[in-house]
Amino acid sequence: MVIMIEVDNLTRRFGTVTAVSGLTLSVPTGEIYGLVGPDGAGKTTAFRLLVGALLPDSGRGSIGGHDLLTEIEAARRLIGYLPQRFSLYPDLTVAENLRFFAEVNGLPPPEWQPRREAMLAFVGLAEFAHRQAWQLSGGMKQKLGLATALIHRPRLLLLDEPTGGVDPVTRQDFWQLIGKAVVEEGLTVLVSTPYMDEASRCNHIGFMQHGRILAEGTPQSLIEPLHGRILELVASPRRLVRQVAAADTAVEDIQPFGHKFHLRVQPGTAVMVQQRLPAALTAVGAVVERLAPIPPLLEDAFIQLLHEAI
Ligand SMILES: Nc1ncnc2c1ncn2[C@@H]1O[C@H](COP(=O)(O)OP(=O)(O)OP(=O)(O)O)[C@@H](O)[C@H]1O
Ligand SMILES: [Mg+2]
Question: Fewer CB atoms inside 10 Å of the end CB: C or N, the chain?
Answer without folding.
Answer: C
